[in-house]
Amino acid sequence: MSDDDLLYLDHAATSWPKPQVVLDAMRRWYEQVGVSAERGDGERCQVARAEVAAARRGLGALCGLGGDRVAFVSGATEGLNLTLRALLRPGHRVLTTAFEHSSVVRPLAALRAPLGLSLEVLPPDPDGGLAATGMAAAIARHRPDVLVFTHASNVTGAVFDAAAFAAAARAAGCTSVLDVSQTAGWLPVDVGADVVVGSAHKALLGPPGLGFVIARPGVALAPQKQGGTGSSQALERHPEAWPTAFEAGTPNTPAIFGLAAALRWADAHPAPPRLAACLEEVERLADALGQLPGVQLLRPPPGPRTPVLSLTLADADPAELGLVLDAARIHVRSGHHCAPWLHQHLGTQASGTVRIAPGAPLGDRDRQRLVEAVASAAGG
Amino acid sequence: MTTHPVTTGDPLRDPPRDPLGRYSRQMRVHGVGETGQRRLASATVLIVGCGALGSHSAQALVRAGVGTVWLVDRDIVELSNLQRQVLFSEADAIAGVPKAIAAAAALGGANSACRVVPHVADCSLDFLRNLPARPDLVLDGTDNFPTRYLLNDWCAEQGVPWIYAGAVGSEGAAMVVPAGGPCLRCLWPEAPQGADVGNCETVGILQPAIAAVTAFQVAEALKLLVGAAPTRGVFTCDVWRGQYLLQQVADRPAPDCPVCRRERFPALLAAPTEAVTLCGRDAVQIDPGSRAPIDLAALAARLDGAVDDLRRTAHLLRFAADGCRFSVFPGGRTLVFGVQDPLRARALFDRWVGAHGGAS
Questions:
Q1: ipTM above 0.90?
Q2: For chain B, the helix, strand and coil percentages under 3-state DSSP, each to the nearest 5
Q3: Strand runs labelled E in chain A
Q4: For chain B, is the Cβ count within 10 Å smaller at the N or the C terminus?
């Protein structure tokens, strides 16, 4: 199938296409390296070690930290599970937000009864944001042991004042866990959170199957799985040192090679102008689509945001619009975007939304194609 | 008040002195005999679909003493089934029991010497290939042609005879497909288009039409299992008009039939229908794989009057039926709202949208 005319607008789910250097780096691992960093002393292991260390340093730098507190995991979902299971204790009080992804919602739901957690979910403000004052008030009211929150809504693109949230948490003696899956690669995530969890395959432009957990020194996390680490092999006891403690099992080294290349690519192609261009595109699309009869846009409040645009149609289910767009070779995402709580507040709990998430500005012709396809479904 | 003689002991659990005694009337029929009865007891029959056709034929085969009967059906019992699907009760319909389970339960009391194994599943190629053994015979109790063509091609590949049966309205048809052909493709190389064929939902179905075709089907099944030569030709009937015919067909496979020539088994190569539950939704997306594209206008004409809220838009056809809403796209992709179970969604898709023809 030719992809010449495919319009891919689902970067908030996973970015595509990846920079060529990412593919080249992964290919290089398969063709020329082929081994894990911590599994031997040969020349190839040294090559692998150097590249894995470079990826750790690059991620650590995103958070204003060195690479030694960066653990690789299979994705943000594993990272959030690991972090929540490691931090939460019986009777803990947990504060979170209505914008969370299922990778926070579901672990909390699973742990709530067994641990007797007291859980408070901060609802969106009337403007669709989360004001720092509201978060500070919620922290004062609920006195949480752990605050876990997303940096941005994957449904509306609203970006929250994570620095203020983390500072308020710290002042209250509360451990903060920040999910940067939607922002890492677009925005600085060095905001002072105690634990930062993210994913390689979205705006960081790396491959899927790789995520990371970064913890500030002094934050104690216990590994949630034990196994081979390549170090301390003679010991029965699982090592406790970062990052090895969290990386039992054969690591996804080709993906780490890809991420290292993506981070270098981003050094040469800084995020701010790319993000600005995508946000301008979202505004153009919002202007054009917002004029169509029956289209309702779910916009974030003024301020920082990520390039996503959610909408609903009066006369068509989001799943129907998704298939209409697919027939027009336009790839978007319809449904709840794994954000089950938020739709209760948006009034979209029944069907969700259609989410358009560009990774680059559209040409005039492609924008016209998209608008016409939505218009035809809206008028249907 | 009559006094009944009191029997001591359990005639089923106590070692029976004459295990074949219960079949004495059947063994007396010319062509069956004790040898035939023993062959029935050692036979395994797969009945595909456990609706009207399947419940009639399953009941007959279990009572006749077939040793093992595998039932496969993905659907649940509904109130509208009870008029013709003789194994089910109102309680089954109220509880929405899977048909294969309800049928096996109903048959349990009919003949404890028969092993009835229910499978709540789609009769897909994957299902057939994962059967624990090759059945001796396959009976068609399906309501759609894609499954019949799958049975046709798989049975030909495996060298297993099968017996086609279908009924709609007051009419029915049945035919033995011997292991060496001629097969369904010899008569009709391709499955009829879904939108062109009526089904029980749109045209209705009379129970006597089911009884007539399964009478032919079960008689032929018994003959095949005891080793007698099956009837050649297509049995057709219209029970309303009182017409019962046997149409002659060629003795030999069609010279260009790819299945009988063992060159190609098209249904074994086709991409399967996929059903995916939409994330977080009470909805399933059906992708009909390689089936023929669906003509929305013809489908709308066929569904008119049988479904609610039928509406055609520039992109799709919408309607409501069986408590679900359907959105059918020109390529055949369909959204079924109001259901989460992909198996149930596929059953509804085949009932209302897919290629049809025959009793359910």
A1: no
A2: 30, 20, 45
A3: 7-8, 70-73, 93-97, 118-122, 146-150, 175-179, 195-199, 211-215, 295-298, 309-313, 330-331, 333-335, 353-356
A4: N
Nearest CA in chain B to A337: B279
Give residue-wise pLDDT tens across range B315-355.
899 999 999 999 998 888 899 999 988 888 988 998 888 75
Asked whether the beta carbons of A163 and A37 are under 8 A apart, the reply is: no
| Cβ contacts of B333 on chain A, cutoff 8 Å | 323
Residue span of the structural domain in which B317 resides: 271-352
Query: Based on the domain organization, do B149 and B166 belong to the same domain?
Result: yes
- Closest CA–CA distance from residue A295 to any residue of chain B (Å): 17
- For an interface test with A, which of B274, B279, B285, B296 has the most A Cβ atoms less than 10 Å from its Cβ? B279
Helix (H, G, I), strand (E, B) or coil at B90: helix
Which CATH number goes with the domain that contains B181?
Answer: 3.40.50.720
Question: Is the CB of residue B215 less than 8 Å from the CB of residue B319?
Answer: no
B-facing residues of A in 304-323 (CB < 8 A) are 317, 319-320, 323
For residue B314, the chain A residue with the least C-alpha distance is A380
- Residue B255 CA to residue B324 CA, distance in Å, equals 45
The pLDDT value recorded for residue B359 is: 47
First and final C-alpha spacing in chain B: 45
Q: What is the pLDDT of residue B174?
A: 97
Whole-model pTM over 0.90: no
CATH T-level assignment (fold) for domain A270-378: Aspartate Aminotransferase, domain 1 (3.90.1150)
**Which chain A residues are within 8 Å of B316, Cβ to Cβ?**
320, 323-324, 380
> Are A323 and B329 inside 8 Å of each other by CB?
yes
Work out the pLDDT band at B1, boundaries 50, 70, 90. Answer: very low
State whether residue A263 sits within 8 Å of chain B by CB: no
Provide the CATH topology of domain A20-268: Aspartate Aminotransferase; domain 2 (3.40.640)
Say what the pLDDT of residue B357 is: 43
Final residue belonging to a domain, choices B268, B301, B328: B268
